[in-house]
Amino acid sequence: MTVITPDEEIAHGVEILDALRAAIRVLRQEIEGQTQTARSGEDIDKTQMAKQLRDMQGLVTQCTKAEMFLNDCRNRQAGIARAGHALDLEQARADIGCKLDRLRRCSGAGRISG
Predict the structure, then answer these.
(1) Distance CA 97, CA 106 (A)
(2) Nearest-angstrom CA–CA distance, 32 and 61
(3) Residue 2: what are its φ and ψ, rounded to 5°?
(4) At residue 102, what are phi and psi to the nearest 5 degrees?
């Protein structure tokens, strides 16, 4: 079984994001070229331009998803929950210990108070 480390997962995500950004740059240059052609009064292929704009929207959406994936990976690696707060495991351990101590003290009383 292959284990993928968080660092490898992040590196792979960065590669994907870089490739998407490069594709956006190329597509943007093509669209800018078409725009210059249209401004100069020459005819342009409107179907091709519409396709390029749809492609650009798709790439931007994919970039957004890749960035969110990378942020989630980095947060998991740092121990930060989705809500954006770091988990304080020491405090949680202390709280659980106190509650267990209270349960132990109350175990002979018959009823455990809330």
Answers:
(1) 14
(2) 20
(3) -90, 130
(4) -65, -40
Cα-based distances in Å from 18 to 15, 31, 57, 68: 5, 20, 17, 14
For residue 80, the cross-strand partners are: 86
114 residues of the chain, pLDDT tens digit each? 566 777 788 888 888 888 888 988 888 888 888 889 889 988 888 898 888 889 889 888 888 888 888 888 887 777 665 555 566 778 888 889 888 888 888 876 555 455
Q: Are 28 and 59 a contacting pair, CB within 8 Å?
A: no
